[in-house]
């Protein structure tokens, strides 16, 4: 298997994407073609009419049934599977104000050619060729002239009824074997700018163009991140388990890795250990190199907080580059771009200061994108009391958000409406309300030659540059001290070990010296006593000598008795003397040995005492450094990574905020704010050039100006200079960044990646140099609307493994598998371990029992609760499973009227307590959710739906209405096939979680048995 096989498989899957039918249309009749009616325009000077013809309104279910028939799928759909709803169409043609098509007007739906391939049993890879053939056939049918030159627009004559009849016949011919619905024509009329390019991608998968592009280029042009994302094997990749080995976790929070920039949130709050480790390692790994990293963020673990800090650091990093370049040296010459009726121009970016610094926030979920882009400019997201002067072009973001703004930090550009809204509210002035646009601010800098303010802003830039440099120096001084302390811990451990060893050895030596001193004293005493005995014996011998018999010689010669008596006394005393002398010699030798041993011990003691002084000094320096960090930088001892940190229980470590203090948080936040101020004056110092480039940028995004990749990168770089973060949905990437190619964007922050299909991110990962993928594969899974049997067939054709399939995999899973830092995790009672990206584990949302249940069913008990439970009375009691047995047959398979009646009763009781907060009503089944939506549509504060509606949201109270046919165990098993649905439902609830349903039936299901054990039961 090769990487191209994966891309082929993904492309084949996307061929069968069924476009939604545009309901904002009307049936076209031959009696009145709208392009013949001369309907007046709202703005005739700038706009024209554009017409889109839609051919066929086909039920999606009919298409799915056709595909399953061709695949010989015999099993009827299970009663718990939600039926495919809605309509699709077969093709579209875009006409100009005169009803004329051009060479780019035709948009055939790819799925009809995919079905043809299935009918003919040929590879789906033939679809691009069939689409090209369809385009050629269209040009012949509509008399589109052949290519004359590249500049000429190739248009056909105005559409007449005969053309449309031929078009219907063409579609009937290629769909005759499966489509039984009469093909009618619908029209959508829209007023657009005269030079706006039409959107021709709406009828097919938004990912198809990017996948085809990637299939047709060499893998060496994929870029580092995409090549990593498509890694065929991961067994040999190095992995650091941040849960199993705390050494890796502690290494990740080395202050040397701490970024300078910090989001200006409340300075009392720092990042928890895992958050800090994720930010540190991710930014360090990607700062100077390309790649992709996964961060595993269960609900309530601070993913958004983490992303805000990453954004702050990217801005600071660019500010450091700008500090080295005079504002005069950022842009080069002006280049004019000629157009039919006008011209535009741009200034080339000639410095690399803007390269790789743009940030794109993307998600499959539009709500997730909006959450971040609306949070960035909002005063609610910063410590407005501490940073009361925070202001980055704040007035120009005010119209973009609800509430008060502090800075123009982000722009939502996901679709045409977003882009138009952004232009009107940011770029253009609201004259009526006297709110100037950013364009006019830039123009005001240089519009008067006599009062050009460029030089003033250049001077302000230089002042702010010096101030920022001073802040950076302060931070670097802290970082050097803190990192030195952090890395001295192994030395401290070693020194403490040596201290204990030296002290033990010294104690033994000193005890030995004491012992030897006693022996020496006893030896000296014995020696003195022996000397006295020797002297006494010698005196006795002298006395004996004086008492020799007279005529001693003759007595000795004759050996007389007198001689013998004398000799016996003399010899006895001589023996005694010798014994004393021998003893003295022994004692003297023993004393010398003792003295030698004492001397040796004292020498060793002296050496040990010298070593101990060195060790004591090193330990004291370490402790003094710790004291300095605490006293000079205000870091509490619990947040200093020392011995106690290393030895504390892991759950205790996860609750700490390493190297965080008000002093450091304030300093880092000020570095970020000062970096924004530097950007502000840098932009105003280049007001004319920025204004020109952004004018062209808006023309490019509106389709009014065609530019090549180099110009597009210049225009995007200019926008990113002004607005650090751009947000988009994955579906909009190929259109929004149509001119951008491999690694042309600096940073991608892909949020809620667990619910994005693997193929949906290929295009944006290819375009981005550094990709940070954040999400949780144990929450909402990707939605796949085409039959699983078809996905299986397409996968088998390309020989692709299951991990690449949208049925069971996601962007998060693929990013996690190639991430160096992470952990292994068991889900529920599964035996197979999965590797996740860097694990965030400190949870701040849910009270118990929701936290405990979710932690057990989904996260192997790894999460740690950071908040105390709300024990106050109120609501309608503690979280409870209201057990109810339904005797009536279900409506629409899963709706049980008794459960809905009980839900209404409990909601009324809750409101009667005075609770006015929002209530979420969630059901595993769409049919139940739809009834709840209808029932509570006009009741404020009650939101109903399946889990897909509530991803990323939270409420104090959540009710889970189980529903389900009591006689269909299969439906319950389907809900309980993995922990995802229950995990999402549980983790939406902050204070109370009420379950309504048959406890006896559902408690037999996996995961629900854990919930049954953890929730109080109440028979309704």
Automatic annotation (TrEMBL):
One GO MF term = hydrolase activity
Q: Where is the DNA2/NAM7 helicase helicase domain?
A: 699-784
**InterPro entries documented for this protein:** Coronavir_polyprotein_1ab, DNA2/NAM7-like_C, DNA2/NAM7_AAA_11, P-loop_NTPase
| UniProt keyword annotation of ATP-binding present | yes
Is the Nucleotide-binding keyword given for this protein? Answer: yes
Q: Note the superkingdom of the native organism.
A: Bacteria
Q: Name one Pfam family in it.
A: AAA_11
Q: What is this protein called?
A: AAA domain-containing protein
Keywords assigned by UniProt?
A: ATP-binding, Coiled coil, Helicase, Hydrolase, Nucleotide-binding
Where does the record place a coiled coil?
461-519
| Domain DNA2/NAM7 helicase-like C-terminal: from-to ranges | 895-999
TM stretches of this protein: none
- Record-stated family: Belongs to the DNA2/NAM7 helicase family.
Biological source species: Chitinophaga terrae
């Amino acid at each position: 298997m090769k990487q191209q096989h994966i891309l082929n498989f993904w492309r084949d899957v996307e061929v069968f994407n069924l476009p939604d039918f545009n309901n904002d249309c009307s049936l076209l009749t031959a009696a009145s073609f709208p392009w013949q009616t001369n309907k007046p325009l709202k703005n005739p000077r700038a706009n024209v009419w554009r017409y889109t013809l839609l051919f066929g309104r086909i039920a999606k279910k009919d298409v799915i049934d056709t595909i399953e028939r061709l695949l010989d799928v015999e099993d009827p759909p299970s009663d718990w599977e939600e039926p495919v709803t809605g309509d699709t169409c077969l093709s579209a043609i875009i006409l100009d104000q005169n009803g004329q098509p051009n060479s780019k007007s035709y948009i055939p739906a790819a799925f009809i050619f995919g079905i043809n391939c299935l009918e003919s049993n040929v590879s789906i890879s033939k679809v691009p060729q069939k689409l090209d053939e369809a385009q050629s056939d269209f040009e012949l049918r509509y008399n589109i002239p052949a290519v004359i030159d590249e500049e000429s627009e190739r248009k056909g004559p105005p559409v007449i009824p005969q053309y449309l009849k031929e078009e219907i016949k063409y579609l009937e011919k290629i769909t005759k074997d499966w489509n039984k619905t009469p093909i009618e024509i619908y029209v959508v009329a829209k007023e657009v700018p005269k030079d706006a390019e039409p959107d021709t991608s709406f009828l097919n998968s938004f990912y198809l163009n990017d996948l085809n592009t990637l299939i047709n280029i060499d893998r060496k042009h994929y870029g580092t991140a995409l090549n990593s994302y498509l890694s065929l094997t991961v067994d040999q990749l190095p992995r650091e388990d941040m849960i199993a080995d705390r050494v890796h976790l502690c290494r990740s929070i080395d202050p040397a890795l701490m970024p300078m920039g910090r989001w200006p949130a409340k300075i009392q709050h720092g990042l928890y250990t895992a958050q800090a480790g994720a930010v540190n390692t991710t930014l360090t790994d990607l700062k100077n190199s390309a790649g992709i990293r996964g961060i595993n963020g269960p609900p309530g673990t601070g993913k958004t907080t983490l992303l805000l800090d990453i954004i702050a650091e990217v801005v600071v990093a660019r500010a450091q580059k700008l500090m080295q370049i005079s504002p005069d040296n950022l842009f080069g010459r002006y280049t004019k771009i000629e157009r039919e009726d006008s011209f535009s121009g741009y200034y080339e970016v000639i410095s690399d200061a803007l390269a790789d610094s743009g940030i794109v926030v993307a998600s499959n979920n539009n709500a997730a994108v909006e959450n971040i882009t609306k949070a960035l400019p909002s005063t609610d997201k910063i410590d407005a009391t501490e940073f009361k002067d925070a202001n980055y072009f704040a007035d120009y973001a005010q119209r973009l958000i609800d509430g008060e703004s502090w800075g123009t930090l982000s722009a939502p550009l996901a679709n045409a409406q977003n882009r138009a809204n952004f232009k009107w509210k940011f770029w253009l002035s609201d004259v009526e309300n006297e709110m100037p646009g950013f364009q006019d601010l830039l123009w005001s800098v240089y519009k008067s030659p006599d009062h050009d303010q460029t030089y003033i802003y250049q001077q302000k830039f230089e002042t702010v540059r010096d101030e920022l440099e001073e802040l950076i120096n302060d931070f670097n001084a802290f970082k050097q001290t803190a990192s030195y302390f952090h890395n001295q811990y192994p030395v401290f451990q070693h020194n403490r070990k040596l201290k204990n060893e030296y002290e033990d050895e010294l104690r033994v030596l000193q005890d030995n010296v004491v012992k030897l001193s006693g022996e020496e004293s006893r030896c000296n005493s014995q020696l003195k006593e022996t000397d006295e005995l020797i002297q006494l014996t010698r005196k006795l011998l002298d006395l004996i000598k004086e008492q020799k018999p007279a005529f001693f010689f003759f007595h000795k010669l004759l050996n007389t008795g007198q001689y013998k008596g004398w000799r016996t006394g003399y010899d006895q005393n001589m023996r005694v003397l010798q014994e004393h002398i021998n003893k003295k010699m022994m004692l003297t030798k023993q004393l010398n040995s003792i003295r030698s041993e004492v001397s040796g011990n004292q020498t060793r003691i002296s050496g040990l005492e010298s070593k101990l002084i060195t060790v004591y000094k090193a330990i004291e320096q370490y402790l003094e450094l710790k004291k300095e960090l605490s006293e000079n930088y205000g870091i509490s001892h619990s947040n200093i990574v020392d011995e106690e940190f290393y030895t504390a229980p892991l759950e205790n470590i996860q609750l700490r905020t390493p190297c965080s203090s008000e002093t450091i948080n304030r300093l880092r936040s000020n570095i970020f704010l000062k970096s924004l101020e530097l950007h502000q004056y840098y932009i105003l110092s280049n007001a004319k050039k920025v204004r020109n480039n952004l004018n062209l940028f808006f023309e490019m995004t509106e389709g009014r100006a065609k530019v090549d990749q180099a110009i597009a990168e210049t225009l995007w770089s200019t926008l990113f200079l002004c607005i650090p973060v751009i947000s988009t949905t994955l579906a909009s990437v190929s259109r929004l960044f149509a001119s951008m190619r491999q690694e042309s964007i600096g940073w991608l922050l892909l949020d809620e990646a667990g619910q994005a299909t693997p193929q949906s991110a290929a295009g944006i990962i290819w375009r981005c140099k550094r990709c940070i993928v954040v999400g949780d594969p144990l929450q909402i899974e990707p939605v796949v609307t085409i039959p699983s049997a078809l996905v299986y067939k397409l996968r088998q054709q390309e020989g692709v493994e299951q991990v690449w399939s949208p049925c069971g995999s996601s962007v998060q899973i693929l990013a996690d598998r190639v991430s160096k830092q992470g952990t292994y995790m068991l889900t529920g009672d599964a035996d197979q371990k999965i590797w996740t990206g860097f694990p965030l584990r400190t949870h701040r949302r849910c009270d118990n029992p929701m936290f405990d249940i979710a932690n057990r069913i989904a996260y192997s008990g790894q999460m740690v609760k950071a908040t105390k439970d709300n024990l106050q009375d109120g609501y309608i009691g503690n979280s409870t499973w209201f057990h109810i047995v339904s005797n009536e047959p279900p409506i629409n398979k899963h709706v049980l009227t008794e459960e809905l009646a009980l839900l209404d009763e409990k909601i009324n009781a809750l409101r009667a307590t005075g609770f006015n907060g929002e209530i979420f009503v969630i059901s595993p089944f769409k049919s139940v959710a739809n009834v709840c939506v209808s029932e509570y549509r006009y009741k404020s504060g009650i939101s109903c739906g399946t889990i897909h509606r509530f991803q990323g949201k939270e409420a104090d109270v959540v009710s889970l209405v189980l529903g389900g046919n009591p006689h269909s165990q299969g439906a319950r098993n389907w809900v309980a096939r993995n922990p995802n649905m229950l995990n999402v439902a549980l983790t939406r609830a902050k204070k109370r979680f009420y379950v309504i349903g048959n406890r006896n039936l559902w408690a037999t299901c996996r995961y629900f048995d854990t919930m049954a054990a953890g929730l109080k039961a109440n028979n309704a």
